[in-house]
Specification:
single chain, 236 residues, 10 helices, 15% strand
């Protein structure tokens, strides 16, 4: 089996010919670029899930917005609720409010996820607590489409303390950072709304990154990697 065949391994459900063609036509993710942060198209993602179990819970909804030319492009937004016939609904439903009726009226997961990856294109992804979103999205794509996610992520939850060391906020949540910067938040705990708030926070952080001489995705990712290694060393 070739590497390409392995990356496009068969999903747990059978895809029709049209879906197979669309999966095969998805663009290849690009490595981190040396262009300016402003020139890079970013997709800011938020997921609502049935719970926090990385191996058992499911993606229930996807919200995303695009940062392009240094601003949120409101003409490029994505929102889907995924159909789940027997959803695992834990305490998280009290936060995001996605009950059985909303989930039963959702779009088939294969179609929703394929629409999302078409929306993403070859762009990198931003999320707050990105490792969780990356893991859950990877599982969902593999199960529904047989597709292995290759798109790189930046964790906004790591960017914030790295770029704002004087903020005295560690292990802080999205609400903590939005309050720190005085961002006006109209709605929270809804995938699209949380994606927009994360995008607004990211743009503030990109401005700080530029002032610190970090004006390319490649430079920013390298700095985050160095910062994480220092944090791990200090923890011991």
């Amino acid at each position: 089996m070739s590497l390409f065949d392995w990356l496009r391994a068969k999903p747990t459900c059978v895809l029709d010919a049209t879906l197979q063609q669309r999966v095969a036509a998805l663009p290849t993710a690009q490595p981190w670029q040396t262009c300016s942060l402003r020139e890079q198209r970013w997709v800011v993602l938020d997921l609502e899930t049935s719970g926090l179990n990385l191996n058992k819970d499911e993606v229930l909804s996807i919200g995303a917005v695009v940062i392009e030319d240094g601003a949120v492009d409101f003409s490029q937004q994505f929102e889907r609720t995924l159909l789940r016939e027997q959803p695992r609904l834990g305490a998280s439903v009290l936060i995001h409010g996605l009950g059985p009726e909303a989930i039963a009226a959702g779009q088939a997961p294969a179609h929703a996820l394929l629409d999302f990856m078409t929306f993403v294109g070859d762009s990198p992804l931003l999320a707050f607590h990105a490792p969780f979103d990356e893991h859950m999205l990877t599982r969902a794509l593999k199960a529904s489409l047989g597709y292995t996610l290759q798109h790189p992520f930046i964790d906004v939850a790591a960017l914030a303390p790295m770029l704002c060391p004087d903020a005295a906020l560690r292990e802080a949540g999205l609400d903590d950072w939005t309050a720190h910067f005085g961002l006006q938040v109209g709605e929270r705990h809804h995938a699209s709304a949380d994606a927009l708030v994360t995008a607004e926070l990211a743009m503030l952080l990109f401005s700080r990154a530029r002032r610190q001489g970090l004006d390319s995705p490649c430079a920013l990712v390298e700095k985050v990697s160095q910062w994480r290694r220092r944090q791990q060393t200090q923890a011991f």
